[in-house]
Design brief:
By secondary structure, the chain is mainly alpha-helical. It has helices spanning 2-26, 34-63, 69-102, 107-130, 146-154, 156-159, 166-200.
Length: 201
Amino acid sequence: MVPGECEELLGALSRATARHRLAVLGLGGIADCGALRVGLRRARRLAHRLALASCSRLAAGLQARPRGPDERARLQRLWLILDSLLEGLAMDMRRTLALARAFPLAQPDVRELQRAIQQLGQAMRELEQKVSVSPWTVEAAQPPGAELRAALSASDSSLAPPSVGEEGRSFCHNGGLRLGVVFGALLGVAIVLAVCLGQLA
């Protein structure tokens, strides 16, 4: 159950960090307003809460004795995902703090943001201390590029040009023929006009 619970937490954290990043990107821009600041604060609080819960749950799962090598490998891959999400969230929070100096936030929000950054950094350090996972030792669940190839093959039908039947080919052919005739007629008229104007001159 531990890997499944961690996957659910990381899925929620991934969505929360994405919403938080969208709000951060709007800070200081033309979309900046009171509603954006409120949404940013809510998104940050949710992402922060989920990040701390994910750290605690995944650390407990890795410190406990896994049921087998497959479960441990699965937890280690989840640890890498969590590490990436935490780095992104911390970066967005620091960016928010920097923007808050140029586009002032309410003072309580700044203090809350500073505490959240400190707590997140502490949680990341504690996770590294409790769980020693070297990224280069984690084995991928699929061969390199498998997910990309699967995505591309699934979209082949939408990316491939539609097949042209006999009727379509004859239509294209006739359309091109008509276009050539019209273009030739226009060219002929232009030549005749040029000759007439030359004679008048």
